[in-house]
Amino acid sequence: MFLWGEINLAKPNDLAENGASENGIQFVPTTKPIITSFSATNSTVAFSKSDGTSYFLRRQRDQDGIVTFSETKSVKCKHVVASSSGDSILLLLSRDGSVVYVELGASAIPRSLQNFIKKRIIQVACGDQHSIVLTEDGQALSWGSNARGQLGLTLPETSVVPSPTPVAALSGVPLVQVTAGGAHTLALSVSGTVFGWGQNDAGQLGLGDTTDKSTPVTVECLNLKKTVSISCGERHTAVLTKGGVVLTFGSGGCGQLGHNSLLNELTPRVVAELWGAAVTQVSCGSNHTMALVGPTKKIYSFGRGEEGQLGNRLTTDCSVPLPVLLPHDDRSIQQIFAGGNQSVALRSFSQEPEKAHPGIITVLDMDTIDFWLSKCQNAKSWCKIRKQIEDIFSSTSSLNASFLDRSVDKHYRTSPRSSGLDLVLLSTALAKLATKAKVLQKVETVVRDCLLPSLTGQPVGFEGLRVYYLLVELLQVLVRDNFGEMLSVRVADAFLSLHQDRLEVLVRLWSWTPDFFRSAVETFCKASRKLLSSLDVDYREQADFFMKTAGVLQRLHSASSSGSWRLAESVFHVTTVTNTIEMFEQLFLSCNSILQYYPWFLPELNDEEQRTLIKRDYYLSILLPLVKYPCILPVECKLKLWKYHLNIATLQPGYIEFTINRATVQQDTFQSLRTSSHDPKLKLAVKFNEEYDMHLGGVVMEFFHLLAKELQKAEPQILEKNDDGVAWFSRNVAQLTDEFFLLGTLCGMALYNQCLMNIPFPLALFKKLLGLKPTLDDLMELSPTVAQSFKDLLDYEEKTVEDLQLDFGGDAEDLDLLPNGELIQVTKDNRQKYVDLQVDMVFSRSVEHQFKEFERGFLRGCPSPEWRMFLPDQLMTLLKGEEVFNWDDLRQNAKYQGCTSNDEVIQNFWIVLAEFSVEQKKDFLKFLSGTDRIPKVRSSTIKIIIKLSCYPEPELYYPMAATCYWTLILPNYRNIQTLRQKLLHAVKYCDTFGLQ
After folding, report:
1. Quick check: helix, strand or coil at residue 452?
2. Is 964 in the active site?
3. Are 424 and 516 members of one domain?
4. Phi and psi, residue 175, nearest 5°
5. pLDDT, tens digit (0-9, with 9 covering 90-100), for 397-434
6. Residue 150, domain member (yes or no)
């Protein structure tokens, strides 16, 4: 052993025999017992030997400034493999994972930490006034002073924690090292993520600032650097990467950072002098740093040298790494220690010391699974297996460290694009685990009862999210084997408890592995289907369970929709919702039948009838909230739920009544909205002057049809149309606030009254109403030529696009795309930004005021927010109607009054309708219903009623329509020619419908 610095541990006869080096380096002969660990601070020095004896000395400075050391004291502790000392405490780690702590006072009585920590410990570390240990399942526990936040426990800064307390923020991170400086602490994960907290006045946390941190924060600058070890000085830190690169940061006043400077560094900086040297160890003293180069076994040191701790013949500070001048070229150096003002180098031995505690986190691997499967039927082995399952599957850290992708160190690349997991191995392992039901059921129990309750909603770092991969795979296995129903609910709870930003990170990770993402969605869909199919009025909690898995699907859908990659909408659909709605409809019909006979005497209902009513209300209570989870709903289910909500919303008595002249429909409507106050939740009733009384249904439908046509040609022009007839807000009439508000109000009212407002708005409008950003594809609908030019710009293959002479300015009428945009030229690197800003200019910035007023009116006109469950194209069809209609369905669904489908006049009617052109069929639809488009909400259920009117001379009469009820009143024409003539005339002049 070699040592140098301010303390002499060599015996006098050793010095006499071997001599003290002229460099101040002492050589202690290698004899049994050997030194197994060493630590030091500015006030203590401690070391342990293989015979189970540990020693410590107290450093003292007298009034003249002379440093002396107290008499060496010893403590007995078997098989010590690591030690760490602070100003007042010494921690000794034994090979069996137990820890003894010694308060460095007069008594120095060793005490066990087993009363506080039941798990095996793999590392210990002490700062000046605080301590931290790491358990075998990767959990960090700290205690002592928290004056600078060095405990990481989110406690008051003045507090002192007397006993080991888990660092909760890192509870799910698989840690492999903890280390402490004077009043700062750092931790290292299995994949090289570094976390820091505590004192940061010199930048010793490497975060780019000098603010203390009371909870662990990721040292972002070290991400993807493959960090394998950390060492802390009093106010500086050194890290070592797998490639042998040393980076330092923090206080540099003594040169301890090795950058040929005395300045502090707030972020990690490579020690250039050691670049390419393949360093294998770094160790920090209070104000100096040492590095061991693996191939040559040379030691380099830098920093404070006043006490000779640099070992380079100097007693001055050194700001660049210089070799430690050992007495002779010794290539047997095995380990280096630095602490306080002391340095130590241990040599290798012909006879190896007692095997040290492995110091690695416990993980799940294929060998462990094979052992479980092969021995689980053996009663004695099963006890051991159960304990192993409980230890591993109750620990988030252990699971997060399992199944890492170690090929070419891929797990060190853990980032928003890579989980660091071998997903094939993970899937294979859990599928193999499922081959033994006994083992799988035990795993399920531990995960449900121990692991899931321990998860935090905001794990630090990406590695803390790996456990959610395992949960999805495990849930997939269980759902496939038709059990684990309650686990699916608990897992859903865990996902819903994730903070939104953490969930978004997780989903972005999944999006880089589309197969896994799809598998996760399908797993929760299957769990949702199982829960939905088992709904029971006597077990109402089942509905809450279903809402949780549906909630997970909705969050996954939302995160997926906002990304660059997304699954098809149908993947999220829970198809059994359709069955549930059908069951409700059957119950509704049954209840109507019951209430027909007992409208006022419900107590007289028998038990079965009462249960039917209760069951109807139960299913309705489930169906109505489903609008919160629209991703799981096929569009047919959305339409039915929309109707249910509207029917409930419009139950209150009264109407909004409009009396309108056909010739001035827009002016009269605007005037009515401006001068009358009304409850927007009431249904609309319309009466055209000089016509029949106030009407709902078809008359209201016709009112919106006429209004839509008038609004597109109104003056002043608030809408502009392109050559294809697509309408958008006029840019030059932003001052017409009221008109845009009223336009939005009427569109909302049409939607709320289940009518159509067929203004040819582009899909972009409905995206904006739903809070989505329009894209270049949307611009293609509104301005095809301009959009194509932007597509060509993005596809331009030449080296530069500067020759196009484009900039980020605006034309004579436009705002600049960017401040001083005319000075910023469009290049190949920024052209995507240029296009995005142009699209935003068209759809947002240039009509910002117009859209805001329209949106404000739309929300007033449609006070039921459930319309947000529709996708943009669905919402557009809901408001504008369907242009294409299956006329065969109309015939198949038709009902007859006073006639049958076999009557000759009815047969003739269908023949004539089939002969109509597309435009004539639209005219017929308008004649029948008041509009020439099909309401999406009723497209699959429209039932035309044909009522035969018998006249002595039917040729004198035209067909008539009761638009409220989709009823065609057809005279009993004697031949097809007359029917054709009269029907064509009626549908052609249907604009005069209802006139007296």
Report:
1. helix
2. yes
3. yes
4. -80, 145
5. 999 999 999 998 999 999 888 899 999 999 999 999 98
6. no
